Amino acid sequence: MSRRIEIYDTTLRDGSQGEGVNFSLQDKLLITQKLDSVGIDYIEGGYPLSNPKDAEYFQRVRDLPLQHAQVSAFGMTRRKGCAAEDDVGMQALRDARTPVCTVVGKTWDMQVTEVLRVDEAENLAMIRDSVGFLVAEGRKVFYDAEHSFDGYRANPEFALRTWKAAEEAGAAAIILCDTNGGRLPEEIAEAVEAARKELHIPVGIHCHNDCELAVANSLTAVDHGAMQVQGTINGIGERCGNVDLISVIANLALKKTGYEVLHNSGLTHLTELSRYVYEIANMNFRSGQPFVGQSAFAHKGGMHVHAVNRLASSYEHIVPETVGNTRRVLVSELSGRSNIVAKTDKYRISNDNALMSQILNRVQDLENEGYQFEAAEASFDLLVRKEAGLYVPKFERLHYRVNVESEEDRPTITEATVKLRVNGQIEHVVGEGDGPVNALDEALRKALATAYPTLIDMQLVDYKVRVINSTEGTAARVRVVIESRDDKDVWSTVGVSENVIEASWLALVDSVDYKLFKDAETSEQ
Known about the structure:
The protein folds into 3 domains: 3-264, TIM Barrel; 298-385, no CATH class; 396-524, 2-Layer Sandwich (Double Stranded RNA Binding Domain). The protein contains 17 helices and 18 strands. It has helices at residues 25-37, 52-60, 88-96, 109-116, 120-136, 148-154, 156-168, 185-198, 214-223, 245-254, 270-280, 302-310, 337-344, 353-368, 377-387, 436-448, 500-524, and strands at residues 3-4, 6-9, 42-46, 70-76, 100-106, 140-146, 173-178, 203-207, 228-231, 259-260, 298-299, 328-329, 396-405, 413-422, 425-433, 459-467, 478-485, 490-497.
């Protein structure tokens, strides 16, 4: 019989403590809805006493039509020497009116005596009073036992007494926290076994990733009886982050037997969830992230691609679509004909061996000049069209010029002039921008807007520059990769030149060109 493992998400609280992470109120509400939609069991919204934003979150979240998830408010045990009902932290948790409250308290005797500076009796009373107060207010209470594994290692009897204090006060579960992220799987197993032996309520696990073991430690805890896993989406959090719930969920669902996680079809939306949180947090995707990363099922070596085309499982541990991801075949100077065949299948030209060799040779020549098509699949798509005789230009480039004016104590002014032939007509326009690329983008769109109105849906989302042959100094070639998106897709293009403006222009033109071909094909379907 399967055992259900509760998934408790603390992206909005613990995750927001990560360097460079800052969620607005609207961000937090949007992520709450997304987490609920994939079947997360508990969503920790924040600490209602810490700032006005979190306090308002707990008011606004009550109006969200959540289908499954329960929202939890987080806080600490009462202050020393203060009754729970008089403690402002306890009052804030009560007034948040969430169905669940999570209270964190001390497990490690060193933390009690050196940080809190109280004796054992007062620490136990702080735990009992805090949990008991919230239980009496009708809340389900999870007790997060901070530094559980460091505390258990230093003084197991003391640690067990703190866990029992929370149980006796009515806690629904004791969550053992590897707060410093420094313990090994065997240490996790030992402490979880001890807690389960002594306690009569469920045990959970909350791991940090300072030794790159958070996922392994969380799975170990589950194998030894933990019923709840706390963590964050994409593993964001303080220092090295929290355990990545994406990997935990996927491993429990696909690699382990006898466990149930999430609800409905949440597993197939893990990639979508991961990228949604990255976008909301304004963070770059981690391409090598297991299960959901853009490179998780990307194949570059010709031998690998040849094998995957025959039997996907030969180089893939799961079917990518199981977690909402897709297989990608990369094209580079390392590619064999199998890569080219896989990438050109949609054009029905893959049986033309001479053309396949021609495309591969062209790729290798261009990469020798500094191009990189594995990071610019849209440029590769255009290359294939040109080599196969399938490319009919949507516009003709005639001329462009960029002018940058800068004077002391005045804002820098950047103008770009673009001259194109579009449907037989000459378009000669000027665009202004914050910099050369922005100005060129503005002018190019303006020149094409009348003929191709769908360009209004397109936006540039990333711009990367890399010097290729740095030994050449200021005459070195640069590679520019531009990432663009519309309401349906994301694509990347590349340009190479000794001049960074020219490299940017080449990548920008490819980006617009790809968008126009893509839209034309969509309208024909």
